[in-house]
Amino acid sequence: MRFPYVHDLTALLSLVEQAERKVPQSIRQAARLTRYAVAARYPGVSEPVTHKEYEGALILAEEVVHWVESVLKEELDRGALDGDRPTIQ
């Protein structure tokens, strides 16, 4: 499956689900991270991020990365990925 070049994590998660991959509820919370992509790209457009928001976003982002790594590993193990193979540690 090809993914568009977007920063909208809600849209990307929807594509994952369309590919018949179940997305855990905790990972659905990643949609909250989209606002940080905009804030980082366009400073001054939104309110500054607090330290508490930063910590929460970091924890959530780490959960998402670990979930994606586990999904990719499963796909690699069953030979389902075409093209370049990502490195999974």
Layout of strands and helices, then pairs:
Blueprint: H1 9-18, H2 25-28, H3 34-41, H4 51-77
User: How large is the radius of gyration?
Assistant: 15 Å
DSSP E strands, number: 0
Helix content: 55-70%
Helix and strand element order: HHHH
Number of helices: 4
As a percent range, the share of strand residues is under 5%
The structural class is mainly alpha
Mean pLDDT: 82
Biggest sheet statistics = none
Unreliable residue stretches:
85-89
Shape: elongated
Report the end-to-end length measured between terminal Cα atoms. Answer: 22 Å
How many domains? The number is 1
Structural description of this entry:
Helix content is 55%, strand content 0%. The radius of gyration is 15 Å and the shape is elongated. Mean pLDDT is 82; it is low at 85-89. It has 89 residues and is mostly helical. The chain contains four helices and no strands. It has one domain (9-77).
Question: Tags for this entry?
Answer:
89 residues; mainly alpha; 4 helices; elongated; disordered C terminus
